[in-house]
Write a structure and sequence with these properties.
The chain has 335 residues and is of the alpha+beta class. The protein has two domains: 3-118, Phosphorylase Kinase, domain 1, CATH 3.30.200.20; 123-326, Aminoglycoside phosphotransferase (APH), C-terminal lobe (Aminoglycoside 3'-phosphotransferase, Chain: A, domain 2, Alpha-Beta Complex), CATH 3.90.1200. The chain has twelve helices and ten strands. Helix 6 crosses helix 7 and helix 8 packs parallel to helix 12. The model is unreliable at 330-335 (pLDDT under 50).
Length: 335
């Protein structure tokens, strides 16, 4: 084991011993020093130190320090494929995102997929308590996302690890994202297959299903924004895109409407997004529909599979949403 990775392995071993791990991250943590050495070798980086910064059920991040500082992300290849796409598209517009140093999503050399990116300084916007500062940073974020949304995507959804995009339409891509992120069996167990299909047919009516796919972030929220705070607040980078990175930009704009996101962030984001171009009535209607989708997603995300009363209440909420969406049809095709 290389000496510069010994402290990293010690840190990982302590984490395994003291914290809850799962079948995905435990084997990686137990061999992380050896894996780091293999991952870093092709880049010629002179690593002097390594530190675990994030350990989640499906994600591990390591800060590597040397002549330069980089972040190495280990996650399922399908998740990283979406992030790599967004990183690459953002670079074509010089947006505030990290740059890719190296990546391998093939599992050819290691039993994990990884991406190495330039390290982003600063803290998370979600940790900034001052609402005025939150609003200012969210405004900068909104302007960046308006630019990202001008980039055409090859399809709806996200690419696979080899870079190929699905051929299904927008409604199917949304439904696949919804079921995949929450668990197909869980969602259908709570709502039933028919209600799920009715819900997505209501969210995306047929006359709005042919929206041209554009590049998305896929999970706009303050915890995915890095900022520095001095005499003012500065957007440093947008991080951690979601699993749906090609589709209708209004899906992204609706994400901050989730109830757990602060009003200051929501207001600032919309101000920045609409600074040079206001939203049309048709776009506002689509945002309304996607807002219901995001809120139902958040409701299911918090739902316990053992709380029968909450499950029944959730099913009633979705049924009401279907009726609400079906009673108001947009009177104009999207442009």
């Amino acid at each position: 084991m290389l000496p510069q990775f010994q402290s990293l392995q010690n840190e990982a071993d302590q984490y395994i011993a003291s914290a809850s791990t799962n079948d995905w991250n435990r084997p990686i943590l137990s061999r992380i020093a050896d894996m780091m050495a293999i991952m870093v070798a092709p880049t010629k980086l002179r690593v002097r130190g390594a530190q675990l910064t994030i350990v989640e059920p499906q994600r591990i991040e390591v800060k590597l320090t040397g002549l330069s500082v980089v972040t190495l992300i280990i996650a399922p290849a399908e998740q990283l494929a979406a992030e790599v796409f967004v990183f690459k598209m953002a670079a074509t517009r010089h947006l505030a995102m990290a740059h890719i140093v190296g990546a391998d999503l093939s599992y050819a050399t290691l039993p994990v997929a990884y991406v190495m990116i330039t390290y982003v300084a600063g803290g998370l916007l979600s940790d900034v308590a001052d609402e005025t500062l939150q609003r200012i940073a969210a405004r900068q974020f909104g302007r960046s996302m308006r630019t990202l949304h001008t980039i055409e995507a090859p399809g709806y959804g996200s690419p696979n690890p080899s870079g190929q995009w699905p051929t299904a339409g927008w409604q199917i891509a949304l439904q696949n994202w919804f079921l995949r992120t929450l668990g197909t069996e869980f969602v259908r167990g709570v709502l039933g297959r028919t209600l799920v299909q009715d819900f997505f047919a209501a969210v995306i009516p047929h006359d709005h299903a042919d929206i041209a796919p554009m590049c998305l972030h896929g999970d706009i929220a303050p915890q995915h924004v890095r900022v520095t705070v001095h005499s003012h607040i500065q957007l440093e980078a947008v991080v951690r895109s979601g699993m749906l990175v090609g589709g209708d930009p209004m899906f992204d704009v609706a994400a901050p409407m989730r109830q757990q996101i602060s009003g200051a962030f929501r207001q600032g984001f919309i101000e920045g997004y609409t600074l040079n171009m206001p939203l049309t009535d048709v776009e506002r209607e689509r945002i309304r529909r996607y807002t219901l989708l995001w809120r139902v997603h958040a409701l299911l995300e918090r739902l316990s599979p053992h709380d029968e009363e909450a499950i029944q209440a959730c099913a009633r909420t979705v049924t009401q949403a279907v009726h609400q969406l079906g009673s108001s049809r947009p009177n104009e095709r999207p442009r």
